[in-house]
Structures are given as C-alpha cells and as structure tokens.
Amino acid sequence: ALERPYQELGRTLGETLLEPTRIYVKPVLAMIKAARVRALSHITGGGFYENIPRSIPQGLCARSQKSALRTPPIFDIICVGARPLFFLEYIACGKNVPEKIAAIVSGVAEGCVQSGAALIGGETAEHPGMMPAEDYDLAGFAVGIVDRKKMLDNTRMEAGDVVIALPSSGVHSNGFSLCRKVFDIDRNNPDLYVPREELGGRTIAETLLTPTRIYVKPVLALLEQVDVKGISHITGGGFYENIPRAIPDGLCARIDKQAVRVLPIFDMIAKWGNIPERDMFNTYNMGVGMSVVVPAAQADTALNILRENGVDAYVIGGIVAGEEKVVLA
Length: 329
What we know:
six-stranded mixed β-sheet, alpha+beta, globular
C-alpha cells in the first residue's frame, strides 16, 4: 500500500509520509516585524484542540471553518517572537503518563533555575509500538550569548598556569552503558538496592541516579573576577578526551592523579568490572565535573571565589610545555 500511487495524493502513500517539514521562519519573522501577528500556534502533536488554545486568551475562542483547514506546522521557537537565552527540552516516550512527564519536566525546570536559563517549552512525543511503555528518552537544546571580546582565548595559556578541579556529584549521566553491564542493571540486580558503607549508606542505584551538578553560576562569578584561560567539561571521554580541547598546541595539562578526589562509585565500577585505570579516566569524570585553567598568581583567588559559591574546588595540576595536551602522572 505504501508504494501504490493514490489519485487523491498524486503520488504514493510512502512519498507523502516522507514529505519534508515545511519551514516558515522567514515569512513569520517578516509578519512579526510588520506587527501583523497577535498570536502564533504550532500545530504539532495534539493537533488543533491542544495547540491553538495555548495562544488564545481567556474569554475568547478561535472558531475555524473545517473546510478551510490545512496542516501548517510552525516551529515552536518562532512562537515566542523573540531571541532570549533559553533551554528547550524534548521527551520521547512509549506511553505518555502525565505524572511521569511532569516529574521529568520538574527536574529540567530545576536545572534551568540553577543555571539561570529560561525553560521556554518543549516537545513530548509518544511512540507506542516503537518504544516500551515504561521507556523515555530526554534531549535538550540550549542557546546562549557572549560578547566576542569576552570569549575565552586559550592562546594566552602558558606554562606555569594552574589547573583547578570542580568536584562532580557523581557519574553525571555518562558511561551508563558500562554501568549497566558492570552492575547487571538490565536484570535488576538485587545488589543495586543494598546500602553500602563505602557509598555513605546509599545504594548503588541511588548513587548512580545522583543529579548532575550544575556549575553555571559559580563559573560565571569566576569569569567576572579571574583571568580564566580555559574550561573543560569532563563528560563522556573523561580526562583524556575533554581536557585537551581547552589546551593549545605546544602545551600540556599535567594532572596529578594522586590529587584527584576519586568518588567511591568509580572505585566500585573499576573493581566490579575489572576496568583498567586508564579506561576509567577515559570514560568517567572520576570526581571532577569541570576543570579551569587560571594564572598561578590568581589560583588562590579562584579557589576562594568558587568556594564562596558552594564549590569545594582544588588544584589538580598545571600547564607545562609538551605536545600530548594532557598527561596523568
């Protein structure tokens, strides 16, 4: 049926379903500029009955003539009519359980509060038959702005600069494929729910689900008062793939492994999975969610600012001459 031409479509059903989404950005922006728009509605999941009411004030009603209706999608971003700094989330799920979706969005909103970003909305896509009912997938998109003259420039980095660690709160959402295998999570291993002394009395499950720490406000405070020459977000790929991104050619971040305050959960992952130390530092943050490079003369000031903003930062190394970009010694 998908490959058979239909007279009412003028082509096959398969071709019709794969028709690219029409983009209305330019014409809609022109209408907004000409002050000819009072409201915009993105007719997406939920159709007319769920989307048009979002832009209609109390006491008024949008009356549509059915014979005149077509299906014009307009991107959510255009609906705001402006360009603020924002975060946008997308949730795909096997079954839309309102309480579960509300809990997810509540967590996203809390993250936005912590980072000072506006959560302008999002998208929830229900995929029955494609995803199990209890599964969901969450994605996010953020927009920010910076004065060009204030952009970080690592070409000013030099040997003698100091590398400061900002402690992580846990695994930080990376390396969970390995965690599932090591702890046999897919089989709902009962060991996941046993309180562990080495984890401060918490279970492995609770520890793995510790929310990611958000460093936005502390780092912004640091940038206002210290000459920060580089910042690395220690995410998937660990030390070996993330720190080099902030280091210019000819220099190397020499990290003192003994100085790194490795969290107990990483020791457990390494022990239970028999994972080599280098692979651990190449997969996980190991207790360091972010690192910053500052001049040695400003290191103490940087540490004080971060600590005043709730981050127990500490020095983990320094910048030296070299071509490897990062060395753990």
